[in-house]
TrEMBL record:
Protein's name according to its UniProt entry: MarR family transcriptional regulator
Species the sequence originates in: Streptomyces calvus
PANTHER family the UniProt entry points to: MARR-FAMILY TRANSCRIPTIONAL REGULATOR (PTHR33164:SF57), TRANSCRIPTIONAL REGULATOR, MARR FAMILY (PTHR33164)
Any single GO BP term: response to stress
GO function term, MF aspect, one: DNA-binding transcription factor activity
Residues covered by the HTH marR-type domain: 15-151
Any matching Pfam family: MarR
Keyword presence, Nucleotide-binding: no
Record keywords: DNA-binding
């Protein structure tokens, strides 16, 4: 992996523009009003913390709450509260950890899988509408570059935090 430039070297204008664009898209996608609209369209009344947890779990095997907290980058107490809410609503369940009988893992229920599928489908439809005028080639190129960027961000984060495993 290439060595990062020294801190006194200014970022290239291209990198500065990428950071600006990422900030804008992050802001737009995390606004409370946008979240509420997405949940209403998906028919899933759920807060942002619950959706983040379900999204992470949908892409992984059942995991312990502490591992889930580490992957989400939050305190374990936040995961515990969210898991309790999601258990009450029937979206997750606790199962024995096959590696340690004293521990439990959290897994999605059928209702949890259905909820996250509806949320993702609604989000994809919104994105499709916003990008409808883009060519298929532009969309392929953007997807390729986004995945490449995320992979590089994850590799960089892993290099900075050797005690934490990368998240897919």
């Amino acid at each position: 992996m290439p060595t990062p430039p020294p801190p006194d070297v200014p970022a290239s204008p291209e990198v500065a523009e990428i950071e600006r664009a990422l900030h804008r898209i992050t802001y737009l996608s995390t606004r409370a009003r946008q979240h509420e609209r997405l949940m209403a369209l998906a028919g899933v009344p759920m807060d942002r913390a619950a959706v983040a947890l379900l999204r992470r779990m949908a892409d992984a095997e059942p995991m312990r709450p502490g591992e889930l907290a580490a992957r989400l980058g939050v305190e374990a107490s936040h995961v515990t509260r969210t898991v309790q809410q999601l258990e009450k609503s029937g979206h997750v369940t606790r199962v024995p950890d096959p590696d340690d009988r004293r521990a439990q893992r959290i897994e999605l229920t059928d209702a949890g899988r259905e909820a996250i599928a509806r949320i993702r489908e609604t989000g994809v439809r919104g994105m499709q509408a916003a990008l409808a005028h883009w060519s298929p080639e532009d969309l392929r190129q953007l997807a390729t570059l986004f995945h490449r960027m995320v992979d590089d961000f994850l590799a960089h984060a892993t290099d900075e935090e050797p005690d934490r495993a990368p998240t897919p």
